[in-house]
Amino acid sequence: MLDVTGFLMKATTIRAMITMTVVGSVLAALMFALKPLVGNRLPKSAQYVLWLTVLAAFLVPASMFVKLPERPGVSITVIHDTVEKYVLSKEEIFDRVDAEVGRNGYHEEAVDALIPPAWWQEALDDIPFVWCFGALLFISVHLTGYLSFMAKLKMSNKAANTECRLPVYRNAFAETPILIGLFCPIVILPDREYTDSELRNIILHEWTHDRRGDVWIKWISLLAGALHWFNPLVCLVRREIERACELACDEAVIGKLDKKGRQSYGDTLIAIAADRRMPHTALSTMMCERKKFLKERLGAIMEHKKTTRLAVIVSAALVLLIAGCAAVLGAGTGGKHLPEATISYEGKSAVLTLGDSKSIPYVELGSVISLNFGEKRPASVSVIEVIAKADGSRKYHDATDRTLEVEYSGSNLATFRIGLHFGDALSSNSADYLPGNAFRWYRIICGDNEKDAVEYGLWLRTDPSIKID
């Protein structure tokens, strides 16, 4: 059975959520700042895409797909680095402390700097449960409203004798034309008389919504609202998406009409504008639910102009800019410039990873460890051998560390040998002298220059240099 609670408790999930909400909020603020400048200068469909790009920033953790080069001492991804620093599980805190003590010995100030305040750690323990409760409550309220709305509609639906690629119904409960349904969408019309031009415009409008997948966007927007229920900016973004959706749909419809047809379409919007507010559902499109919004839509229809090539270029540039900002702001660190190496020993091979102490392979004394860097070996590879405990932390003072001789072979190989170490004789614990009970930690530092140097950690288990019978 899937342990949902255990999954939500993982610090990586919390980090992803915080990063997405911060990145999405920054982009939303940028879009709200650009909104007065964009106005009627860009196609409505482009503005719709821009807001959908912001929505994607709230839903897609960019750090999983975008990695920026990691430069020592230089913080490129401020949001990612800050979140990584302060949002840690207890296990990750212990690992960082062990690694620090293993590298530099125990220094109280350095260790304290790695441990977040106690109140913050306690807050992190509660965050997943509070977030999960809020998300479930948000989804429950909206789904309940949606299902109740659908039930009321079904009670008074009557099939309409109207030509359309979608099922069309008349309903006395409906105040304005509605497109509803995710997998089997239907069009619902208020039960009243329509002229031929009104009916044609309504059907064309709702069919355009269906063709563009706007109901799916509504559901995705609801998901963003559930995940980020605590962020008021998400509510504003969802409202802007709803507004841009209708304007873009109007633009797509009137783009195929002449001046007289646009006038007729505008008249239809006025004629079917809802006199009273219907129960709101975020999971359907309503042709003209709010009279306040009607004025803006009519203005856009009357001022409609053919999209110029310049407008298309500027729109594409803005979309790429917003998407690029989302990628950079939410990016992780560790780009492809890092040496990707594999180790091999005694006919076995494994990937050499940064600080991986989860599995400690056994290697006989005298074995040669081969580092394969793929296409090209870094100009410099140095290996420092440390006597370690079973958990990978340092066992003795750094005076016992020693730098091993590294030999190069070809353009991509570097090797070093597991040899005897005088530190094995320092232990007063007889168990440390048993076969396979000597733990070694290797700091493998590689890079083309000191500025770009990258350090790997490799733990091995071998036999002690001295045996006691």
Describe, in plain words, how this protein is organized in 3D:
- By secondary structure, the protein is of the alpha+beta class.
- It folds into two domains: 4-152 and 212-273 and 286-329, no CATH class; 341-462, Immunoglobulin-like.
- It contains 13 helices and 16 strands.
- The protein has helices at residues 4-9, 11-38, 44-59, 78-86, 90-104, 108-114, 118-156, 196-211, 214-227, 232-254, 259-272, 291-302, 309-329, and strands spanning 67-68, 157-159, 168-171, 178-180, 186-190, 284-286, 332-333, 341-345, 348-352, 368-372, 380-388, 402-404, 407-409, 413-417, 438-447, 454-462.
- It has a five-stranded mixed sheet.
- β15 (438-447) and β16 form a beta hairpin.
- α2 (11-38) runs antiparallel to α3 and α11 (259-272) packs antiparallel against α12.
- The chain is elongated and about 100 Å long.
Strand arrangement, largest sheet?
2-3-5-4-6
Overall mean confidence score, pLDDT: 77
In N-to-C order, the SSE pattern is HHHEHHHHEEEEHHHHEHHEEEEEEEEEE
| Total DSSP E strands | 16
Shape: elongated
For this entry, what is the oligomeric state of its chains? single chain
Q: Helicity range of the residues? A: 40-55%
* Main beta-sheet strand count, sense and barrel state: 5 strands, mixed
Give me the secondary-structure category: alpha+beta
Ranges with pLDDT <50 over ≥5 residues?
Answer: 1-9, 71-75, 335-339, 353-358
Question: Which key terms come to mind for this protein?
Answer:
Immunoglobulin-like; five-stranded mixed β-sheet; elongated; alpha+beta; five-stranded antiparallel β-sheet; 469 residues; disordered N terminus
